[in-house]
Amino acid sequence: MNKHLAYGVVAFWGLLNGLSLSVLAIYGEASMVYWLWGGVVALLELVAFTVWLSSWRGSDQHANYRVTARTGAPALPAAIAVLLAGLSFAYGFWLLIVSLPLLAIALGMAAMPGLAGKDV
Amino acid sequence: MTVPATSDPADTRTAEPDGWLGWLTTTDHKRIGLLTLATSVVLLFLMGILALIMRGQLAQPGEDLIDAHTYNQVFTIHGSGMIYLVMTPFAIGLGVYLVPLQVGAPALATPRTTLLGYWLYVLGALSMLCGFAIPSGAARSGWFSYPPLADSDYSPGAGPDLWVIGVAMSAIGILLMAWAVLWTVLRKRAIGMTMLRLPVFSWSMVVTCLMVLGAFPSLLAALVLLALGRGDPAIFDSNVWNIGYQHLFWFYGHPVVYVMFFPYLAAVAEVLAVFCGRRFFGYKATVLSLLVFAALSMSVWGHHMFTTGQASNDYYSLTSILLTVPAGAEYFGMLGTLVGGRIVFRTPMLFALAFIPQFLIGGLTGIMTGTPVIDYHVTDSYFIVAHFHYTLFAGSAFGLFAAVYYWFPKVTGVMLDERLGKIHFWLLVVGANLTFLPMFGLGYKGMPRRVNTYSSVDGFGLLNLLASCGAAVLAAGMIVFAVNILRSLLRRRRGGLAPMPDNPWNAHTLEWATSSPPPPENFTPDRPLPPITSNAPLLDLPMAQKEAEGANPGKTAQPGEPAGPAERSGL
Ligand code: HEM
Ligand SMILES: [Cu+2]
């Protein structure tokens, strides 16, 4: 029973949203609102499905006691790249010349397993 | 059914680099959580200084401490900062720190994207604040920046662009963190930690993160629309996009109010239970009403658009008023916990107790403004300012302080000073009510919000003076708070503090089962996970121990109880 609860919570919550949306339809609203909220209900059910998939494959509760071995070093360069991409919208798209390579480097670092540092 | 424990041979705990580099690149949820919490507290002080500037300007009619152009920037960054950069990130940061501990997990589900989320939040905050450093100034069209006011015709300059970038980055950051916290609760719980044994705080994070997933993408869509409009303001010649922006914005804007509420409500709930020495009353009803409450809160956004005359007012006022039902259930749970509890009046408990009536004032005036007939009178007035400061400051921020006093010893290993804590508390109670209660009167008498001054014939002078005096009391209280924190941290560094027990409050949930502060992997062979038998495992402990001695066999034990700690940690 409990194995079902985790994804059930998400699915149930999405359905509650769908319920309120259908009541709104009785009152009537701008069509973009239906798309917006309908899209959110769909997104939530997708999340519920992902949770279901993962709990169907694995156990409900975890015995594996493991923490990640990978460094978070790529996070800061990636965030700077995102900032520069954002700024390019205010200060000109030439900033992308800096942003995109930086993003590539960050992604490269993230993909590399070797940067994990030493084990204890 | 639980699965038997398996040891994990591939345990490859990494040593993080020492010093500040280790913090910048950390994947330890406790460090990421602490960075988030500390950053948002620093920003709380900065945004508070902006509030003081406003209260200085408004203390008397016709003052000119700052001009209108500056005033607009100050209230915009104060409001945006408090919402996007303080109350929301602090709430999620609490989840990042506490949820893995509370569910008995060694780590967050996706630690690296969580760290990315933190950095996006920090750089977003910098971008927003940098507006003050450029000649044309920071954003000045309010925390919801409606077009056409916020487009490049009416708000020229780079400041509003920096605001759009900053808000978008912090929103993406919060989304990444919320995803990690949600997945951790749903999929990384320890053996025995079923969904219905989650502490109330972890449950609040489930609903909070669901709201973030459902609502924050809509904010991003609104920001993209605004960015397009700043490129080509002609877009907003069409009413469709002006109203469209309001829908997109408030579809995020109302739920975020609950993102800034549930985690603090739940922190208060845990504090109430612990300082009453009993289980939280009506656990299952509370959990269910949290879920319903959160879902309903996704349906009320149109109450911010009543006066546009272009929203389905009947529907939104119906759903807004329906919110009283689950809210009543939460209040019932809190009061039920108090009744018959043996109350211990420590600082966290004082803040939790004050939260209850003060948030109620905010909530009830919210129902008033959720009624179109009243809203048409008070909209865009100081009544609204009073209403949301009662919810956000007298409510949620009191929950925030309850959380700080309660979990500070967990996080740092030292206690905050009780005497200073109590001074802080009383200054805040007096200050908050003195500041925000007069604002209801001002709004009712017709003082509009977002004005930098008023005339002496308006008759707003006395109430404004009271509010500004209240702000001074609040400032004094916050100085005491800062002194208290710095003093404890300094004493810890110097040593010489009396050793503190790991669970100084006799708290009930798993984060208190390990050492304070917890080791990198949260639970170790010396500090193993206790058996998880309910939503208050540490309260069960004596009973469970008795059981281990054979006193009450089978009463609370679960099949497949956790295996030996050494095996589980793989050490
Ligand atoms: C957690 C704490 C707080 C939060 C979340 C918060 C939030 C907000 C928000 C969202 C706005 C609206 C900005 C806008 O109109 O776009 C605002 C305005 C304002 N706040 Fe706060 N605030 C907090 C604390 C305070 C404190 C402590 C004071 C007084 C000492 C204060 C005084 C003001 C004033 C004077 C305004 C401007 C009202 C106007 O001109 O319309 N706030 N705040
Ligand atoms: Cu609302």
TrEMBL record, chain A:
The keyword Transmembrane applies. Keywords: Membrane, Transmembrane, Transmembrane helix. It comes from the Bacteria. The chain crosses the membrane at residues 7-28, 34-55, 67-87, 93-116. This is Uncharacterized protein. It comes from Streptomyces montanisoli. The lineage of its organism: Bacteria, Bacillati, Actinomycetota, Actinomycetes, Kitasatosporales.
From TrEMBL, chain B:
GO terms for molecular function: cytochrome-c oxidase activity; heme binding. It is a multi-pass membrane protein. Residues 508-571 are annotated as: Disordered. GO terms for cellular component: membrane. The chain crosses the membrane at residues 32-54, 82-103, 115-134, 162-186, 198-229, 249-273, 285-303, 315-338, 350-368, 388-408, 420-442, 462-486. Residues 23-533 form the Cytochrome oxidase subunit I profile domain. It comes from the Bacteria. GO terms for biological process: aerobic respiration; electron transport coupled proton transport; respiratory electron transport chain. Keywords: Electron transport, Heme, Iron, Membrane, Metal-binding, Respiratory chain, Transmembrane, Transmembrane helix, Transport. Signal peptide: none annotated. It is found in: Membrane. Gene3D superfamilies: Cytochrome c oxidase-like, subunit I domain. The keyword Heme applies. Residues 516-531 have a biased composition (Pro residues). Belongs to the heme-copper respiratory oxidase family. PANTHER family: CYTOCHROME C OXIDASE SUBUNIT 1 (PTHR10422:SF18). Cytochrome c oxidase is the component of the respiratory chain that catalyzes the reduction of oxygen to water. Subunits 1-3 form the functional core of the enzyme complex. CO I is the catalytic subunit of the enzyme. Electrons originating in cytochrome c are transferred via the copper A center of subunit 2 and heme A of subunit 1 to the bimetallic center formed by heme A3 and copper B. This is Cbb3-type cytochrome c oxidase subunit I. The lineage of its organism: Bacteria, Bacillati, Actinomycetota, Actinomycetes, Kitasatosporales.
